[in-house]
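Below is how a single chain appears once it has passed through the pipeline. First comes the sequence as given, then the structure the pipeline wrote out for it. We keep one example in the README because the format questions we get most often are answered faster by looking than by reading.
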Amino acid sequence: MALNNFLDHIVHPDAQQYAEEHTSPENDTLHALNRWTHLNTPQPHMLSGHYQGKLLETISILLKPRRILEIGTYVGYSTACLGKGLAADGKIHCIEANEEYEEIIADTLKKAGLFDRTTVHIGLATEILPQLGNEKFDLVFIDADKINYLNYYQTIVPMMNANGILLIDNVLWNGKVLYEQRSGDKETETLKQLNDMIQNDPRVENILLTIRDGLMMCIKL
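Resulting structure:
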């Protein structure tokens, strides 16, 4: 299968459309942000979007986390979804490397009613994570620079509470992890190593979901 057609064949397009049509719609805030992102940013595909966003929201509502960590916030769409189930006394830490998105993130959090319960860290996650001290997280979402996924995973698992959920985006990497044996592509090699590491890590139970570009879901034991 050609890699450029890979994502179109994970789920039949008609089945995907039907699934999205039978999924609760975006609220007004998320719908407006989705549209703004497609009109005003050069890489709107980085947005979690309606279908995946609704999964993040559902997991959060079921889990009712007190502490949420997000690495790779972009414009705050996924943050708003993750925050749906945040406990009344809960806190979100989100990390975004691109300072150009700081203002729109703040606007999204205000509209989502999460501004006062969120700390936005602008900078490199590799530098910010060690500064979070003794925080223990119940829900973590990683959607950032793939080259550091192994570092993020190894750093974050010890920072999670038992039965906490870790979600990692783009783990199929447009099919490259399946079809490229020795690509020389560092991002592909990193993701292949990560998937194998998780599969053999006794600290977690995991399932790789074939949603969009692959979403790895781990439960901390």
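Strands lie at 67-71, 91-96, 118-122, 137-142, 160-169, 204-209, 215-220.

See the next section for the split statistics.
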